[in-house]
Amino acid sequence: MSNRLETAENPEQLKRVVIEPLTRVEGHGKVTLLQDEDNRIRQARLHIVEFRGFEKFIQGRPYWELPVLVQRLCGICPVSHHLAAAKATDMLVGSSLTPTAEKIRRLMHFGQTLQSHALHFFYLCSPDLLFGFDDEVRHRNIVGVIEDHPEIAKQGVLLRKYGQEVIRLTAGKRVHGTGAIPGGVNKSLDRGERDYLQADIEQIIEWSQGAVDLIKQVFLEQLDYHLEFGATDSNMLSMVAPDGSFDIYHGGLRARDPQGGTIFDHVDYTRYSDYLQEGVKNWSYMKFPFIASLGLDNGWYRVGPLARVNNCDRFTTPLAEQARGEFLAIGEGRPVQAALAFHWARLIELLHCAEAIRELIDDDDISGRELVQRGDMQPVGIGVIEAPRGTLFHHYEMDDDGLVTRANLIVSTTNNNQAMNESIRQVASHYLDGNRLTEPMLNQIEVAIRAYDPCLSCATHALGKMPLEVSLVGPDGQVRDRLEKRAGDVVCPTPA
After folding, report:
1. Fewest beta carbons within 10 Å, which of 21, 24, 396, 414?
2. What one-character DSSP code corresponds to residue 465?
C-alpha cells in the first residue's frame, strides 16, 4: 500500500504533463504527471480544482432546512445527500421511522442508485469499454455509442428515465426534491402512482440483466488485462444489514483488508469517528480518510459498488445474488481488486435496485398514511447512507435554538481519494512509464478515474489546508502580481 509516486524529488527539474479537464466525470479536476528526461514517471496526482465550503456556510441554519439545503452540493447525486441529511435530522428529532416512511425513502434511494448507475455506465464509461481506450476522440463518446450501438444507448437512456421517475414520485421532483423530512416523509404513493411504475418494471429488470451480461462479456474477453489495469490492493468499507446482506439505506459499518479478513464489523455508524480519521495534504482540496487503527499510510480504503459487492454476504434479490456469485468467482477466493471491476459490480447493483423496486411497489406500506414520527430532541445527528458512489457521512451538531453549530461531511468520492490516486499511479507506472505520452495513453489515466464514478463537486472540503493562489493578469496576458495564502492564514507575495 505504497505511495511511491505521490511526491517526486526535485520536481522543479521534471517535465510536467497536465490532464485538464478530466472528461466524462461529474465536477472539475485534473491530473498532473511529472517525467524525467528519460520519460520515467516520477509523480502522479489527482487534483480537485474547485471548492464548495458547505460545512461552513450551513452553520447557523435551522436543522429542518438541511435535507433540502445540502442537495445543492450536486445535481447528479442530490438524493443521496437528501437522504443522508434526513437520517441525521431523524436523530436530531429523536425519530424512529414508520414503515411507510422508511419504505418510501428506500424506494427513492433505489431509484437514485438505478438512474445514477445507468448514467455513469451508459453515458460516461461505455464508450471506452465498447470501443477501446485508444479509439478516436471524436467517436469515443455517447454520440458514438448511439451511432454504433443504438439499442444499448436507448436502454441506458430509458433505464435512467425510469429511475428519475421513481425519484419524482417519491421526492416531488427529479432534482432537488423535498420528499424526506426530519422524522419521515411528506407523501406516500397512491394506487395510480404504483401502477405507473409497475407498468415498466419487468422491462427495466430485463434491461438491467442485459447490462450485467454485457459488462461480463466485455470483462471476460480480456480478463487478464482487465484484472491488472488500475488494480491496487486496498481495504474496503461499506454498510451491511444486520444479517450481513447487501443494504444501501441502513446498517452497520464493515471493513475488510485486501485478503478479505475482517478489520471491524457491524459498527454503529454514529461511532464512525472512533474508527475513521481524515488526513489532509497540501496539494489537494480533498481530504484523505483512513482507518484509524491502521494509520494514514496503510488505512486508506475503497468504497462504492466494488466494496459493497465484495463485503456483503449476499444480495436479497435472486438475480443480483446469482450475478454476484459469477462476479466473485474471478477473485478466486479473494476480494476482487481490479479498478475496472467497479463497472461490473455497479451493474449488479443496478439489477438489484430494479428487483427491489418491484418488491416495494407491490408493498401496501408505501401507500400508508403514517408519514412522520418524532421524539425528544438531541444535540447531535449523524446520518450514513450508501450513495451510488459509496459510503456517505453527514454529521451535524445544533444548539438549543435548533441552529447548526457544526457540520462534517465525508462524501463517497473523498473516501475513494487515496484509492483513485493509487490507481492512476498503477496505470502510469505500468502503461506510461518510459514513453512519450499520447492522447490514448493519457486517456488510460482518465479511464482509471472514471471507474470510481467520482463526483468531484461533492468532494471538496479541505478549506485552509492547502495554498490559495490569486494572480493579477494584465490585458496582454502577462501576470502582473500574485499572492499566495498558505496554511495558517499567512499571505505572502510570490514572484510573478
Report:
1. 21
2. S
